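Run log // design_07
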């Protein structure tokens, strides 16, 4: 990318996807699920307005800095740094940015747009939530906005579309994790760090629940709500991930690796490994030479 094409915090940009490309995006199997219609970034001082008449598309706004006002459903709400707005199709709204205020905006649609949006809206307050400043989301949006300068080749467009899907999925994950932690004081990252620091031994449900200051029942229930797996199975999965790393990057015997992960019976370890990975530890190690 040339220096002239790079976005800076002082640039405003608007990208309208041309009709010929929209038709291709709608029909192509790799892009028809979700794709942008238009997108942009406002970063300069001065007032501006984003508005949307009833249409088939979703409208997303992400506040990078400053403050603005959202007029939606006969209410006016203040939008602050790190806030995310998502307006469903067929809804009128307007957004006024104030001086020294910057936002990204994207209008998107597609066969899977409702599914992607639902993952966000279910954790939002009538289309509004705080996700904080996420550097990877800002980088993804800037990359999307440079699509025009990179050219509308199939490779560029398909990559951009999947980058948008990745960004929406990440934002949904952030909202889910944030809402869960706020409601329950449940720190998943701290629990996973405890697990990773104790891969060499056994951690039972009593220890994990005590660490989280919850009963075993409530700890297991909340953990599964957030990860879709039980805490003990998650711990075992982390052990097997570490076993794979050691098999790939060391010449330790399988017995030795099993022992470093708290399994004194190498046969039990091998059966467990095969159940999760689909092949024995020996087969896994041998397979690295046949990729």
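design_07 sequence
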């Amino acid at each position: 990318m040339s220096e002239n094409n790079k976005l800076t915090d002082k640039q405003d940009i608007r990208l309208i996807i041309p009709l010929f490309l929209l038709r291709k995006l709608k029909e192509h199997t790799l892009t028809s699920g979700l794709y942008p219609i238009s997108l942009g970034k406002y970063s300069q001082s001065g007032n501006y307005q984003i508005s949307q008449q009833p249409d088939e598309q979703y409208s997303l706004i992400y506040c990078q800095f400053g403050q603005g006002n959202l007029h939606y459903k006969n209410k006016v709400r203040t939008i602050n740094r790190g806030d995310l707005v998502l307006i469903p199709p067929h809804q009128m709204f307007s957004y006024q940015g104030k001086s020294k205020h910057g936002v990204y905006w994207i209008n998107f649609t597609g066969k899977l747009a409702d599914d992607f949006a639902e993952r966000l809206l279910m954790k939002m307050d009538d289309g509004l939530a705080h996700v904080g400043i996420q550097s990877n989301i800002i980088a993804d949006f800037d990359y999307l906005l440079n699509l025009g300068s990179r050219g509308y080749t199939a490779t560029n467009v398909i990559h951009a579309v999947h980058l948008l899907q990745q960004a929406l999925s990440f934002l949904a994950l952030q909202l889910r994790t944030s809402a869960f932690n706020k409601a329950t004081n449940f720190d998943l990252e701290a629990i996973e760090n405890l697990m990773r620091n104790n891969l060499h031994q056994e951690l039972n449900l009593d220890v994990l629940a005590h660490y989280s200051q919850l009963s075993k029942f409530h700890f297991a229930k909340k953990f599964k709500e957030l990860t879709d797996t039980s805490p003990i199975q998650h711990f075992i999965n982390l052990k097997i991930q570490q076993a794979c790393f050691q098999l790939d990057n060391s010449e330790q015997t399988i017995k030795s690796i099993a022992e470093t992960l708290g399994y004194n019976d190498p046969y039990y370890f091998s059966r467990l490994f095969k159940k999760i990975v689909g092949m024995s530890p020996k087969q896994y190690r041998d397979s690295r030479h046949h990729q």
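The longest helix spans residues 154-184.
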